[in-house]
Design goal:
Blueprint (H helix, E strand, L loop, with lengths): L5 E7 L6 H9 L5 E7 L6 H5 L8 E5 L6 H11 L4 E4 L5 E2 L3 H12 L3 E9 L5 E6 L4 E3 H4 L11 E3 H6 L9 H13 L1 E13 L9 H14 L4 H23 L2
Parallel strand pairs: 1-2, 1-4, 2-3, 6-10
Antiparallel strand pairs: 4-9, 5-10, 6-7, 6-9, 8-10
């Protein structure tokens, strides 16, 4: 197998119905990569499904002995990764075929440790909605304190940075917390304002329950060490941007 350049980390829990599409969208990327699928104690037939990839050296399949949750499962994948870069991909999302190559080129041009993309919303059945959530092409720690533009399935970052700032606190938005910690040190990130990620809408995940998601956002600020007043101020700004981001989607 050729040298791995990107390690794609994919936590898997009760996702047999759609994980094949996610894996295939990773395998068509035009960069040397590996896909680490980590079964977080799924109750469906994921073991049987993954047998179809047993002869593909690019796909590595692991099972947690006990349920770890998404943050620790991603951290386990990062720890086992062989690539120079880490890309996160949830098992129900999809990438366009040129996503990783374009992000890596941009990161090298900009000397950035973190890169994201815009995303197009996808219905639960996999049909595209045509609704795109844009991103700023450059962002700093200050920019994302009140608006998280980095969807986890769009993110690529240097492997050493991913190991320096592992995800934690599953009762918060663990990915948002990671981005804040990364940018607090490295300050600068870049993005491609094109929907290279197809993001599946879900009502069962963390972000699907809006009140629960709101509480998790507030906890994220507190875990960052922000005081009560600053956390409330950032949360109000975050909520405003969140409503604006999805306003036209709800009006469809």
């Amino acid at each position: 197998m050729e040298k791995v350049f990107v390690s794609v980390i994919m936590p898997a829990y009760n996702c047999t119905a759609y994980i094949g599409g996610a894996i295939e969208s990773a395998l068509i990327q035009d960069v040397p990569l590996e896909v680490l699928v980590i079964n977080d104690c799924s109750k469906d037939n994921l073991d049987k499904f993954m047998l179809r990839y047993r002869d593909d050296p690019r796909v590595r399949y692991f099972k947690n002995e006990r349920r770890l949750g998404v943050a620790k499962t991603r951290n386990r994948g990062v720890a086992m990764a062989r690539g120079e870069y880490i890309a996160f991909l949830d098992a129900d999302d999809l990438w366009t075929k040129d996503k990783l190559k374009r992000q890596l080129q941009l990161m090298q041009e900009k000397n950035a440790v973190l890169c994201s993309t815009a995303r197009e919303l996808m219905n639960p059945d996999g049909t595209l909605t045509g609704y795109v959530i844009p991103v700023k092409t450059e962002f700093t720690f200050s920019d994302i304190r009140t608006q998280n533009q980095i969807n986890c399935s769009s993110a690529v970052l240097r492997a050493d940075v991913a190991r320096e700032f592992p995800m934690h606190h599953d009762d918060s938005h663990e990915d948002y917390l990671m981005w804040l910690e990364v940018l607090k040190k490295y300050n600068y990130g870049c993005a491609i304002n094109e929907p290279l990620l197809k993001y599946r809408i879900s009502t069962t995940g963390k972000s699907g329950h809006k009140w629960k998601s709101a509480k998790m956002t507030y906890r994220t600020y507190r875990y960052m060490g922000f005081g009560l007043f600053r956390s409330l101020l950032y949360f109000i700004c975050y909520a405003f941007h969140g409503v604006r981001k999805y306003f036209f989607w709800f009006l469809r």
